[in-house]
Design a protein that fits this description.
The protein is mainly β. It contains one helix and four strands, in the order ββαββ. It has one helix spanning 20-25, and strands at 14-15, 18-19, 87-92, 95-100. The strands form two sheets. A two-stranded antiparallel ribbon has the order 1-2. A hairpin with a 2-residue loop joins strand 1 (14-15) and strand 2 (18-19). It is elongated and about 65 Å long. The relative contact order is 0.10.
């Protein structure tokens, strides 16, 4: 069985009366954690919300009303040596275009 966890806080997770979080903390070889960040076994305020994109075509659609500037601030980690972390369509008086970082 694979249990997918979201960025957030889980206090109790059980499977067949076994505490998954307790077994993970004990390093039980039957329980595996796969993630970018290390698991935290305490309650903490979340300042950074990690987002995992499971597919190459995964994305966030972010419409903006002010079109004369765009400012992005983020950190990223890719599982491949080449990745597109941001892209967009551009319409100007010179025509239609596309940008990507």
């Amino acid at each position: 069985m694979q249990l997918s966890i979201f960025p957030g806080s889980l206090k109790y997770v059980f499977f067949n009366d076994k505490s998954i979080i307790y077994e993970l903390k004990r390093s039980n070889p039957m329980v595996h954690y796969i993630g970018v960040l290390e698991p935290e076994y305490y309650e903490a305020d979340v300042e950074v919300i990690p987002i995992t994109y499971p597919f190459a075509g995964s994305h966030i659609w972010w419409p903006i009303e002010q079109t004369n500037s765009l400012k992005l601030n983020f950190d990223f980690k890719s599982s491949t040596p080449i990745a597109i972390i941001a892209s967009g369509d551009v319409k100007s008086n010179r025509g239609v275009g596309y940008w990507e970082v």
